[in-house]
Known about the structure:
The complex is a heterodimer of chains A (289) and B (497). With 289 residues, chain A is mainly alpha-helical.
Amino acid sequence: MAHERETDHATGVETTGHEWDGIKELDNPLPRWWLWIWYVTIAFSIAYWVAMPAWPGLHSYTKGMLGQSDRANVGKELTALELQRGQGAAALRTASLEQIEKDPKLQAYAQQVGQSVFGDNCATCHGIGGTGGKGYANLRDDVWLWGGKLEDIQYTITHGIRSGDENARMSQMPAYGRDELLKPEQIDDLTEYVVKLSNRPADAGAVARAAPIFETQCSACHGLEGKGNQELGAPNLTDADWLYGSDRASIRGQIYAGNGGVMPTWGGRLSPETIKALTVYIHANAGGQ
Amino acid sequence: MPTLIDNRPPEPETRTAVSAAARARGKGDAKGGLYKPREQIYPKLVHGKWRNVKWALLIITLGIYYITPWIRWHRPDGFPQQAALVDFTGRRFYFFDIQLWPQEVYIFTGLLVMSALALFLVTALFGRLWCGYACPQTVWTDLYIVVERLFEGDRNARMRLDAAPLSFDKVWRKTGKHLTWLAIAFGTGGAWIFYFHDAPTLLRTFWTGDAPVTAYVSCGLLTCTTYIFAGWMREQVCTYMCPWPRIQGAMLDHHSLQVTYLGYRGEPRGPHKKGQSWEGRGDCVDCRQCVVVCPMGIDIRDGAQLECINCGLCVDACDDIMTKMGRPTGLIAYDSEAAVSHRGSGCKPRYKPVRSRTIYYALALGIVGGLTLWSLIARPDADLHVIRDRNPVFVRMHDGAVRDGYTLKIGNRTFVEQRFDVAFEGVPGARLSHPGAQGEHVSIVVPADQVVPLRVFVTTPPNAELDASVPARFIIRSGDVQAEAKTVFLSGAANPQ
């Protein structure tokens, strides 16, 4: 690597004494303006320390004369964003739900707002895609326990379900097994009956035995044909959609315990405009009603 | 491995083996410090064929640069009437009948790759022609030297003026020169901003103070760089700042044409008196004309050097002298290393423009050029991109139907509003719908030259028998403007609930 410094014949310039694969490095002098530019950068950095935040201390840092602060800048931008959102919110406030959904621009805005609010507040139970899970309603299909029209959805979000809000949607399925309202074998028969309701093969004897029980106990809410009732949040038992599972064990468990989910009330937590946006977002992405 | 041709006569071994040329250039004293003050270069005016080519190119390139933004071009109302415009706020690029969107940046990529390959090809064939003739640094420096000559005279007069003590004459000449330079620089920076904004409008708002801040900043910045680079720094930019000379050096080989001093014909050099015999001596009369006209301040007779920009001014200067001397021209000429060594050893010179390197560059250039042109021509008037919902992938309805959600990005490239009808193919009996509108028929109005997103749902008939994944496509149509995009319909068949 290191050799003697020597003078290169072709150029008359000294070499640095470094050599790689027979190639020697020349030691050409730098142009002087380059050196001056370097001095300028040093001067600039010193001026920068004075003008801008630069040196960290143990508990603070040098603030600089210009008062530049990224934190303050972000704060300013957030304030500006709030203002901007205020305009959108004003548009949402004055328009009706139908108007919002019909107007492409407003709908796009509401969808954006709705999507982000949904992710922050609703996705915990309903899933980020809104498809729910066992015990949590699927908001994407066209099956609605409490109604899927715009106003229904808005009401549900505002007041919640069994949330303790005085206007909350409220209903309670009896726990037929746990409270010993029905005998275990009757519950078994009823299970078969419910399976039959959704067009699946079931034990004919059990179905026949359970028919009167269904009529007396269940039809008040679920209807004689088991079609459900959205006034009471009673699910339709004849379709392929099951909140607590479609197999016999799940159906039997539901008759035994009479589970009913709780949805919080959002009226106090989210602004009316936000709830409107959320309503439109959910409605637009569901199998509409 | 090309080597430097050393055209100098062998020297007696001196204390340090430093060539006479190196000493002449003042680099030879080993006591040279770490930093080198700049030696002022005073290029002399030269007349000749390459100088004329340079004048012509200077007029053409600067003409294109200054005039282009002012060319008007008819487009429908609401669109810029400027032929060449980079519209950052509208995120569009206009060039006569071509209009590009930001997502077509690949066409610019193609252009840049083509430029690079064209540079490689030209350099491999003819050496650093870009540097000598077309580079903005060269062109504007040339223009600035014209101004300098106007105020201070040619080389000798300028040297005398710089050496002279301060006087009224000196001050007004210098002041006039710098003011003119600044005016040209300002015109250059000013012309630049017209490419990004409607030129006549900007010309008005610029002076009323209503132009965007970026316009003033860009204009100021380019005024400074033009004035400093072309007025003050000149050859320093090429030698110390610019990476291109280094890149181009790697493109050269034995067969590239470079400005070459034919040492075998010129040496031994020496002064020549009229009537003296030319026997036993070289044609070079050591008049140093090639040195004084050189904008880089080098002596071409030392052989190829990294400073040389291949501009051919020394060729003109030498040809002029040779004609006066009654000797054949071409003592300094565009020539290749291979041809020179052939001739030097008495063989016929061979030029090889077609060789593996140039074939490869030309092929690559042709392929990239063809692809870029094809992608420019083959662009449809409408754009369709389909983004399939990934959560949920599909939704099963109460009646057993399956629904998939898609977001369509529908772009209208025409200058008129289009109402696109959306169709879906691939799933028999599937129904299209979109939020906020019920019904079988989905259509959307897309304003001229815009992209609009559209949420659509595709719902199968109840209990349709479908594969888990069905190939499908969306088609948008508005009159004869149409586009289609492939997608899939996921039915969830593989994982029934």
